[in-house]
Design brief:
nine-stranded mixed sheet; 10 helices; 18 strands; about 30% helix; binds zinc ion; binds calcium ion
Length: about 375
């Protein structure tokens, strides 16, 4: 059976291993050693070289009693800063930090749940399906491990990712695409007191453009935001350059395209009105993904959650994760929660009761 103490011990050992994005090698080595001690085949791909990090993605394979419906269980190895020298603090059924770092329950709670489930299956010699494990690098720094992942290393179709926040029971099955945008307005410099009429103030142009934009929640499935604006200098100079960054997210590709066009039109029109110029650069950060509720992996997730005594909580999420990238390589991805809270902050903690439930869920999904 799932061993609660062993799960917690493994989790604590892992959070003590530094693993900032791009520097996951120590964590990867820990995992490779763990798997090799159990005679599990494991390999690392070359994504690290392409990302400029010290570590690629790890894939492991455990042959089962049935080759029907193999499943991959996935989590990411990296965590957000500040995360060097994590000192976990046990407080009843919670594990927190000393307040100086993130905990890295995002996503080591996911890794710990997967490893504990696997350990039980192997230890109890439970008949199980063909199991793949995928541990990615650089998820937090732009999904770059997943973006450089080669699908030939993972010959199955269903992937269960243990990386959703909040109470156990969540099955995140739909996430938006995101476009990142950078705009630069070029006006014309002039002395603001002597000959302002010779200048074109880029701040005025940008303000005009932004005041016409759709910002915030645009509809139920679409959002946008301006992240940062910068430009200008002394008050006696008409500002000649302003740059801002923005993002637009949508679950609906057509709406995403419309809103990109609208934002662009606001910029072009403002530049034209003031005789300025603008550069509008947009780039897809990640595509959207959606898992059918009729799919095998969705139904299996529901069943596993019910076996643990929880009502499944299918959820549409607003953020991107490895699932956005992996799903667009042709995999069917479900993202399950593992009891991590306040992630990406120094208040991050994990509820070990929920991490334990997550390990039980994974166990039920591995076992035949
Ligand atoms: Zn995560
Ligand atoms: Ca995260």
């Amino acid at each position: 059976m799932v061993n609660r103490q062993r799960l917690i011990d493994n989790f604590i050992n892992m959070v003590k291993v530094d693993s900032p994005s791009g520097n996951e090698l120590e964590m990867a080595t820990w995992l490779i050693n763990y798997l090799k001690e159990r005679n599990i085949e494991v390999k690392m791909d070359s994504a690290g070289d392409k990302i400029g990090g010290n570590c690629g993605n790890i894939v492991a394979y455990i042959k089962g009693e049935s080759s029907e419906n193999p499943i991959c269980f996935a989590a990411h190895m990296d965590q957000v800063m500040p995360c060097l020298g994590v000192k976990p603090v046990i407080d009843g059924n919670l594990i927190k930090t000393d307040g100086t770092t993130t905990l890295g329950a995002d996503d080591k709670a996911g890794i710990a749940a997967i490893l504990e489930a696997l350990e039980c299956v192997l230890e109890d010699k439970v008949p199980h399906r063909d199991i793949y494990l995928l541990f990615t690098a650089c998820e937090e720094s732009g999904l770059n491990g997943a973006k450089n992942f080669k699908s030939e290393n993972l010959p199955c179709k269903d992937v269960v990712i243990l990386d959703a926040g909040g109470a156990t029971g969540v099955i995140a099955y739909k996430a938006p695409a995101q476009e990142t945008i950078k705009v630069t307005f070029h006006g014309k410099k002039a002395h603001a007191g002597i000959e302002p009429e010779k200048g074109i103030n880029a701040i005025v142009v940008a303000s005009h453009a932004i005041s016409n934009m759709h910002i915030g929640r645009l509809d139920e499935l679409t959002t946008s935001n301006i992240g940062r604006i910068e430009g200008g200098g002394a008050t006696n100079i008409v500002t000649d350059e302003v740059t801002f960054t923005a993002e637009i997210r949508s679950h609906v590709p057509k709406r995403l395209a419309e809103e990109i066009e609208h934002m662009k039109k606001c910029c072009v029109d403002a530049a034209e009105k003031f005789n300025a110029t603008c550069e509008f650069i947009n780039e897809n950060a990640y595509p959207s993904f959606e898992l059918s509720k009729d799919s095998y992996v969705f139904k299996l997730s529901e069943e596993a959650i019910r076996k643990v005594g929880i009502e499944p909580n299918p959820m549409i999420i607003g953020g991107g994760s490895d699932a956005n990238i992996i799903a667009n390589l042709g995999y069917r991805c479900a993202i399950l929660s593992v009891g991590m809270y306040e992630v990406h902050t120094v208040n991050e903690y994990v509820n070990t009761d929920e991490m334990y439930q997550a390990a039980q869920m994974v166990y039920h999904m591995m076992a035949l």
